[in-house]
Amino acid sequence: MKDSDQLKRFLFAHNPIRGEHVSLDASWRKIVAQSDIKGAALTLLGHALTAATLLVETLKIEGSVSLQIRGTGPIHLLLAEATSSHTIRGIVRQSRELDKEVSLQKIFETDKLVITIKNKAGLPHQGIVPLNGNSISEALQAYFEQSEQLPTRIWLACDEQSATGLLLQKLPAEENDKDAWNRILHLAETTQQNELIKLKAEVLLHRLFHQEELEIFDAKPIKFSCTCSQQRTLDMIVSLGKTEIHSLIEEQNEVAITCEFCNANYTFDKVELEQLFVEGDNLPLSSTHH
Ligand SMILES: [Zn+2]
Fold it and tell me: Domain holding 78: CATH number?
């Protein structure tokens, strides 16, 4: 039986190469169940969530990493977020049928992948990467090359039950064995999708790298969790601006908002909304969001 919902880091004992293995299981199934996604959209979201989980660990940040693709194509939104507290959440939106075998640019009708890194102390840092290739791992390859990261490769796999990923990274250190990186990449390339999905981390790593000596660290558990709250939802309403809130109050007695990530419902009645005007004159006159 595979170890579920966890991330494991590992090191090659004799070479300056590190790695991570992640398996999203119950956390992933929860996301699948509440959004009735299937087919290519499901695969893209599974890959993006796995990649975000690997990235947040690799970048060693206290905060979150999100991958976002927004366009006008058959799949028009993909958003996957992972935090350093080992939580994930994500959504994908599809409005039309997809043709078979199309590139990410055709699927989304955009040429951008946006990677946002939010550090607990500081402003979010946004990186925009050209949306190339047919998969999230191909598109991320451009990010690794462009952002002057250490040489890094990822492999992603997903079905309705699990989303799994493997990352390898070459560390800046003196190499005695110059061929190690290429040899280890070559071994990783032999991974089959169903092995990534089905095998326990140790079994997969042994199957790939049994000629190398690995040090495998303790697993970190991962779970689905949403950061939405009554207050954040209210802040979002405030950001709509006075005019918009007034018309909401005029039109209906209450405003109900459902979180896209977790389906939580937040309802505000007329009194609560009117209270916003009493509490402060710092409301924007109109929306700054478009
Ligand atoms: Zn939520």
Answer: 3.55.30.10
Specify if 35 maps to a domain.
yes
List, as one string, the DSSP characters of 218-276.
PPEE-EE-----HHHHHHHHHTT-HHHHHHHHHH-SEEEEE-TTT--EEEEEHHHHHHH
Residue 131, domain member (yes or no): yes
Nearest CA to 8 out of 201, 281, 249 is that of 201
Q: How far is the CA of 258 from the centre of ligand 1 (A)?
A: 8
Using the mean position of ligand 1's atoms as its centre, give its distance from the Cα of residue 9 in Å: 29
Residues 196 and 86 in one domain: yes
Residue 152 to residue 143: CA distance in whole angstroms: 10
CA atoms within 13 A on the CB side of 76: 7
Q: Is 265 exposed, middle or buried (0-12, 13-18, 19+ CB in 10 A)?
A: exposed
Helix, strand or coil, per DSSP, at residue 22: strand
pLDDT at 137 over 50: yes
Domain housing 242: 230-279
CA of 233 to the centre of ligand 1 (A): 10
Say whether both 47 and 145 belong to one domain: yes
How many angstroms is it from 51 CA to the middle of ligand 1? 21
The per-residue pLDDT for 289 is 46
Cα dihedral across residues 239, 242, 244, 247: positive or negative? positive
Q: What percent of the chain has pLDDT over 90?
A: 67
Cα(223) to centroid of ligand 1, in Å? 14
